[in-house]
Specification:
Layout lengths: L13 H14 L4 H4 L5 H17 L5 H14 L3 H14 L4 H9 L8 H15 L6 H9 L4 H23 L7
Helix pairs in contact: 1-3, 4-5, 4-7, 4-9, 7-8, 7-9
Length: about 180
């Protein structure tokens, strides 16, 4: 049970019930990762917009790349919910094997991504873990691979926001529900 009060879907009313309806339409269910934000509908809206942007609106960053970013950021942050969830996605929805996931966790250079995406993954890990070490050559290397600055920002934002989510999930003891 989380440390803060959450509202179960069957008890949601008003704006929260409407938001839960949208989440269910988008994801097929109301997960604990959505319910943790239930006492703040504005935060649910922000989280929904974030998820929708990366799942629907932006087209240049692949789902395997984004799941890899989330999983490795969460692995470093020791957020087991997010590590397991993103591992589940990679294995069950993106046709990776458990060995592929474990190899990437052990060494991100072994990610089952093409050279371009692997470079982006490694950049985001560096940017999130040691942002002061990022330099112009790092960004230029991604440009040389064909990435636009907006794509570099999008990927880095995705990793940085994952750290914030990890903190919330771990601080309030979210329970696994998948």
């Amino acid at each position: 049970m989380p440390l803060i009060t959450t509202v179960k879907p069957e008890h949601a009313t008003g704006e929260l019930a409407e938001l839960y309806g949208k989440i269910e339409a988008m994801r097929g269910r109301i997960s604990n990762s959505a319910q943790i934000f239930s006492t703040s509908p504005e935060l649910i809206k922000q989280q929904m917009a974030f998820v929708e942007y990366y799942m629907v609106k932006q087209k240049s960053l692949s789902m395997p790349l984004l799941a890899s970013i989330r999983m490795l950021i969460s692995d470093k942050n020791s957020c087991s919910y997010c590590v397991e969830f993103n591992s589940f996605l990679l294995i069950n929805m993106m046709n990776w094997t458990a060995q592929d996931v474990e190899a990437m966790r052990a060494n991100p250079n072994d990610a089952k991504l093409d050279t371009k995406e692997k470079a982006m993954l490694l950049f985001v890990l560096k940017a999130v873990r040691t942002p002061h070490d990022v330099n112009a050559a790092d960004v230029q290397a991604l440009r040389d691979l064909g990435y636009e600055d907006g794509e570099i920002l999008d990927a880095t934002n995705h990793g940085a926001r994952m750290s914030a989510i990890d903190i919330i999930f771990d601080a309030f003891k979210i329970e696994k529900d998948f």
